[in-house]
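Quarterly update from the structural biology core.
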Amino acid sequence: MSVEKELEVRSGGVCELCGSSEGLSVLEVSPSDASAQQSIYVCSTCKEQIENPDKMDETHFNCLNDSMWSAVPAVAVMSYRLLKSLGREDLVDMIYMEDDIKAWADAGLKSESKNALLKDSNGVVLSAGDSVVIIKDLEVKGAGFTAKRGTMVKNITIPQDVPDHVEGRVNGTKIYLKTEFLKKA
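Predicted structure, tokenized:
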């Protein structure tokens, strides 16, 4: 039996991520050996967004709330990766995976981590040089002051070694700020 036929039978003829039956095809979950166990059956919408992360529609991927619990390792791995790239750590933290499956999921993230998008509290993509506004009073550890709500931070930089943070100057001091407490100005 071909890989596509196996996946069609396994999925019941629907996308294994969102449940759509439109434009279904095989998507290999890299790194893999191209077997049915390491591939998923996805609709054209899911496939296009997976292959073009800059066009990812977070509302479409609300379906991951269900698919992240799949007993099929390849589906769970892809759900994990998509949730990570969407910045949905709340859902990622709920996923349980065996060590080998988690290693497979993380292996695919390392190559994609350079393309990871940072988003503010409203889901707007942040880029180096943007201006942001702090949405909550934040105590700055070690600096002895509080970054007040409503403070504008101009010309932010995005550090490579600290995920979900931006770097900017507040009260003349360069600090790291968690993106969940910022909104793009």
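The mean pLDDT is 88.
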